[in-house]
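Quick start: read one record
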Amino acid sequence: MSESKLLRGTFILTLGTYISRILGMIYLFPFYYLVGDVGLALYQYGYGQYTIFLAFSTIGVPAAVSKFVSKYNSLGDYHTSRRMLKSGLIAMSITGLLSFLLLYSLAPVLAPLQLGGNSLDNSVEDVTMVIRMVSFALLIVPIMAVIRGFFQGHQSMGPTALSQVVEQIVRVVFLLSTSFVILKLLDGKQSTAVGFATFAAFAGAVGGLGVLIWYWFKRKPYLDELLSTSKSQTEMTTKDMFKEILSYAGPFVFVGLAIPLYQYVDQYTFNRAMVSIGEGENSESLFGIVTSMVPKLVMIPVSLATAFSLTLVPTITNSYTSRDFTQLRQQIDKTFQICVLLVLPAVVGLSVLAYPIFGTFFEISEAGGRILRWYAPVALLFSFFSITAAIMQGINKQRFAVISLVVGLLLKIIFNVPFIIWFEEIGSILATALGFFISISYNFIIITKHAGYKFELFIRRSFLMVIFTSLMSISILASQWLLSFGITYNDGRLQSGILMIIGVVVGGAAYLYLAYRTRLLEILLGNRFSFLSKGNKKKAVQ
């Protein structure tokens, strides 16, 4: 396959993934207006369970199947690739069915554990119903994972990309339309609307599977032609085939669950701890903000910035494999610096503008703004955990990333309840920050030891970015102070939006100007954006 075609396929898959992610974020804003914070908490009770069960029922199948199919296709053994598809569909149908039955059956047990008390707005029956409604998606999504992996193994990224986008569009349209009809036209119960909102995962999966089936029939003549030219089939039992698949899936299935696992801890401890300190009346409202509303806002800039940094990871793998440690250390340095360059100003800006941002997208809320202000800086830890874990995969030390995650998760489990008792809802954020900080520190130690990496240049450049970010924050605060003589975020959503937009423009302009004039943008991003390498000939940042 030509390099240009491979790059095009990678671009298509990346674009489809991010369109899907963006759709999966922005639907929350209108959905919140329909069901409120208590309804959003109910939604999270069900969807949080689904995320964990789905991860363990698919166990990294798309990437693993893709690698398996690609390997045997390169050997000309298309029979084994087709065997993988057939066996994988059977296996994933079984794991999907078992996951569905398990989650559906456990719903009455999981519901009261999440609520942590009887004085909350949502009932055990409501939570049980929502968990059972979302569990139906487990019947289909694992099957899609195999088909997507099969197409990707043939270097065909379009089916995966389009099916992801269609899946999200169908899910969002179904979720919003059913919620609107039930609540506004039929005057139905909020719990019923949320139940159908979680069932939207099944509707979306049907849409995504329909796209994949369409692609299968469209591509089948070509795939059959490849099969007819196949070399002799590799001698391999079905058991050996799945052992190889599981070896590809590897420990990073677990690492990819880092944030959902931390949220899973909150699902079983947050309400119980809040009830124990007499805050049961506000618990579910705050739970919805901490686990759904604020993370959606924070992850929009962070996911894009982290992905930008992770594009350097394949070159890190090549450098490590070829034992070029000088280049390896330079690439790690650049990856870390790009992460700070892009993520630090984004999360600090979110924190400084927390109240108008939350008021613009959700409602004027003292609690919402306060939680966003505390939560935003933690997103920098999310980014560094993802990047350091990926680098450890690149230098073949992924098992240590699992160890670091387990240690961090144990700290979250140990400290979550005490921190919530001491600091109320902010305690959950502090426990998350502690867990991720220790995990990242351990990852840094491993990278230093096995890649010979030193932090001197990274620390110097990061200090400079901290100065730029501080000046950016001052410019934002100054603009907000001047505007406060005319409007404040408490005046309404429109006024919050005006304050947010002006703050983002002023802060962004200040940061970009400083980074450009000192050639920091050129040094770190000039090879990606050629205009940054032209016209500015000032002395480079050291």
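The radius of gyration is 24 Å.
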